[in-house]
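We now fix the convention by which a protein and its fold are recorded. These numbers are not coordinates but entries in a learned vocabulary of local backbone shapes. A record is reproduced here so that you can trace the correspondence yourselves:
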Amino acid sequence: MNVKEAYSYSVSFLEANGVDEADFKALTVVCHVAGIKNSEYHAHKDDFIIMKRLADCLWKLKTGEPLQYVIGKWDFYESKFYVGEGVLIPRPETEELVDLAVKYLKTVTNPVVIDLCSGSGCIGVSIAKAVPDSKVYCIEKSKEAFRYLEKNAKDCNNVVLINDDILNDIDIENADLIISNPPYIKTSDLANLQDEVKKEPQMALDGGNDGLDFYRIINTDWTSKLKSNGVLMLEIGEDQGKDIVDALTEFNNVEVKKDMYGNDRMVVAKR
């Protein structure tokens, strides 16, 4: 079977099994198995494809496994990041947080960055690559996620990896920037998430009863790790802006910024 035939078959299979976004997922797994980019589909549509590998991918999608886990890598901020079971999937909104951080850090000489709840490292590693004179500490509690973090940071000499809980007193130098995309979903809302999102680690999603547990921890336990003129940048849920401004009691200047869709998505705080 060639690439074009495999794509047509994959779309039909996924649609018949009620998989959302069947066209895009079929194209992505077919191109993944063929070893080409999605944009190269038409140039390689007559190439032959290994059907057993494709069948394995389609079966995983049928059972609700996220596309990113099936592929094993995902694009984020000009790099590909290893992802899989046990680690949060990088999302486009988080790229905006990284972009905001990079613009700020390029105004600082030899900046020190602390990335809390680092997960795959998509934030911290992306910053380290974009700002070569920076030193980035990536802190992640989960051993499963930490394995992906190690793979993604492998070629970054300016990244320091720490497998620890942000609740602990970690001996670390003060930073110009503390950044985080912490768990921020209310515990009561976890059951209502999309099936694919439920496949992601609950540890990376559950923000406690009101979704603000980790913001309070960062406010009380990590503010002292900022330099006097340091900045805190956080990703937030779209309905959490006001509550997080109120929660960041250690900061005098807290600004909520919107994402590309016009939703509250980021907080920038200064003391």
The first strand starts at residue 73 and ends at 76. DSSP finds ten helices and nine strands in the chain. The chain has two domains: 3-63, 87-270. Strands lie at 73-76, 79-82, 112-116, 135-139, 159-162, 175-180, 226-235, 253-258, 264-270.
